[in-house]
């Protein structure tokens, strides 16, 4: 990458220089020829203009007219140069630049016609005409100077001598014009004489000091021939006479001799100019060819060097890249092996650290040292993963062991509470026992959370399908603020036995969250209905809800629950969601959280069709519920029964009776074999239940005044269509059902006193 710009920059500079020199070599002959022709034409017109002003005869006028026509042709040939692309001479040392010089000459030539008319009309004197033509010739020398500057030093030296030769020719032309002005009068003014002497001295300086030392090769002999010729000697002698003559004395008669010698010397100088031009063009084109050869050579060598560097770099890079990719592949394999090692450790397999680490063969360079470091890192990573996985697995076993032991104590506590609830009938005592029963059910769920987070599964098992309404009531019984939860179930769906325990736990966690994150006394609505893909349960609260990002994160958690590290998530408030996600994944449930129309959160739990069963053919009444769902609807008991604990048969439609606080059911308080109960049971049509007025059986002296807020005896018991029931009524109904159940159907503990597996007091309670 570094060599390519260097080679490209060098080649670009050579190509630019080659292009410039080629342009100069091609344009210089055309520019020089047109400019030289204009120069010679103006030299002749300046001399003839001076002769016509000195002797306005017919002959001189005719010569001037012919010369003007020739000058016009030269001007026409020069004007196209102004449209040329002269950027090849646009360099810092070309002063004046060619474009500016051509433009200056063009502007001066624009006044040529005006000057001619002034000369013809006699309004322009000799000196003004002389100055004008000399000015035009001076601007032409600017073009010569600009063309003489080249990128090639040899070409510049050759062309600079050409400028000096044209300068010598111009000095002879100046002498002609000045002498023509005094040829008729025979004398010159002091100013004219000074101009003549200056022209003679300048011409001599240019030829002897600048032209002669720079001549080489075939240019020396023509110059020597010119300086030794008779015309040169005559011109030199005449110039000496003119210089030594007094300005006030009459002008020496040098007309014919000067004309012949001056024309001969000028012709020899122009021949030397042509020879010098050819030599300069030959050097310029030779330089262009050499520069092109250098450009090709440098470009070829540069490209070869770049190709060699690219191939070498590619080879080295390929070798290094292959070795680096090997190291990267080893690192990726290590990354893939670590989760596999951890998974094997979680399954209880033994892992050999040395067998799991693939050592990289070391080499005596930096990559070898990197491979050795990778070996150490791989071994350390696998060893650390093994240690951490073993510690995590041990912690999970310890957590499950502690939770299981606690669950045993909770089961014993629930059993003891059952015994106490059967023995006591005092409403106040029962209310306290029911509160303890509710707290114990919640504690059992929390312990199951620890078991699930520790990698285990809940121990509660059911042997038969359970009605969804009972499942929802069981989940409601494990929620602290259960009074705010309303349940509504369409039809009468049943849940398969293997999904009862996990589903109760999932619904209890979601109900708990809904009640905890919504402000009392707003309700938490639970609705269940069959849908096209199974059974849908909706739990909707009226809390503050969550942000869209939180909903997305929660739904992602439900779709793919991670392997939770309890130690690193001890402070995470979403442990309940982890439990729901784990249990849902084990059953194949779909749980989705959405914003509620009330501003809270709506959770949709979809049970697939395999977990939903039809109603069994022989379904026991609600009295058989404890055999399938242990105590779950009896958990929340805010209001115990008032004074009675007799058997209470269900109605024929399967609905349980409900009552208001402070009102007892006569049918419930009746003995098991009472005529009223048997008649009611035998009757084909359900009869309204009798009413009982509180304290009606007491004498007047023993009656306590009724509370102002208590309702009168107008309240009656009725069978409600809604699925919500009083927990106290259900608990009392269960107890009396157990008492009146036949001996072969009632639950009998084994003789050793340990609970039967799968019974409500052991497995069903966790």
Model description:
With 766 residues, the chain is mostly helical. Among the domains are: 3-302, no CATH class; 465-615, Histidine kinase-like ATPase, C-terminal domain (Heat Shock Protein 90, 2-Layer Sandwich). Helix content is 59%, strand content 5%. It has 20 helices and 8 strands. The strands form 2 sheets. The protein has a 5-stranded mixed beta sheet. Strands 1-3-8 form a 3-stranded antiparallel beta sheet. A hairpin with a 5-residue loop joins strand 6 (590-595) and strand 7 (601-608). Helix 3 packs antiparallel against helix 5, helix 5 runs antiparallel to helix 6 (153-181) and helix 9 crosses helix 10 (255-346). It starts with a helix and ends in a 26-residue tail after the last helix. The model is unreliable at 621-729 and 740-766 (pLDDT under 50).
Topology:
Elements: H1 3-54, H2 58-78, H3 98-109, H4 112-121, H5 126-148, H6 153-181, H7 190-214, H8 220-227, H9 230-244, H10 255-346, H11 353-356, H12 366-423, H13 427-453, E1 466-467, H14 468-476, E2 485-489, E3 494-495, H15 500-516, E4 524-531, E5 534-540, H16 548-559, H17 575-587, E6 590-595, E7 601-608, E8 612-613, H18 666-669, H19 675-682, H20 727-740
Parallel strand pairs: 2-4
Antiparallel strand pairs: 1-3, 3-8, 4-5, 5-7, 6-7
Helix pairs in contact: 1-2, 1-5, 1-6, 1-10, 3-5, 5-6, 6-7, 6-10, 9-10, 10-12, 12-13, 14-15, 15-17, 16-17
